[in-house]
Write a structure and sequence with these properties.
Elements: H1 2-23, H2 47-64, E1 69-74, E2 79-84, H3 92-105, H4 111-118, E3 137-142, E4 145-153, H5 157-169
Antiparallel strand pairs: 1-2, 1-4, 3-4
Helix pairs in contact: 2-5
């Protein structure tokens, strides 16, 4: 009799719990009024401006003792300029380029994907083409238009992002 009572209470509790859970809104089902990350694409960044952003990023990395790879792509995600600092790991060459490409293609910092997967459990992002869920890719925006992106790799994600932010600051004012 006591076992039946416990089973009935457990069944009622589980039914209530699942009903309450199903009433909570799924953030993926929320429909925003405006399109997120809708910065329009602009003319491609020039070589001299790309080199300036790289110089700022590598200058910051050098000041901190970090050896990074830094890439800048244009608004069409094509490589414009690249620098590999002395001692930067070889595996991060393509990663720096990938971060820059993803940032310009999706019009957002790559940190958004890292947070989406790690903090919000948005595993579906792993199924999207060309995603990299690691910070260190920053869009370059001039006069409200996306002209390119900078990507850094070779340190921790936070080191990559810090150097990229300094490089991006030469454009994003």
């Amino acid at each position: 009799m006591a076992a039946r009572m416990r089973a009935a209470v457990l069944t009622a509790f589980l039914g209530f719990s699942s009903a309450a859970a199903s009433q909570q809104a799924n953030s993926l089902d929320t429909i925003p009024d405006k399109m997120p990350n809708a910065t329009p694409y602009g003319a491609p960044i020039s070589l001299s401006r790309a080199q300036g952003a790289i110089a700022a990023a590598t200058g910051e990395a050098e000041k901190r003792g970090w050896a990074l790879n830094v890439a800048v792509v244009d608004s069409g995600a094509n490589l414009v300029a690249f620098a590999r600092m002395d001692g930067a790991q070889l595996g991060s060459i393509s990663i720096s380029e990938h971060k820059a490409r993803v940032s310009v293609k999706f019009r957002r910092p790559t940190k958004a994907f890292e947070e989406g997967i790690q903090k919000n459990d948005y595993k579906y992002q792993l199924t999207l083409d060309d995603i990299i869920a690691s910070r260190g890719g920053i869009p370059l925006i001039e006069d409200g238009k996306l002209i390119g992106a900078i990507g850094c790799s070779g340190g921790t994600g936070s080191q990559d992002e810090a150097a990229c932010m300094v490089g991006a600051a030469t454009i994003n004012k």
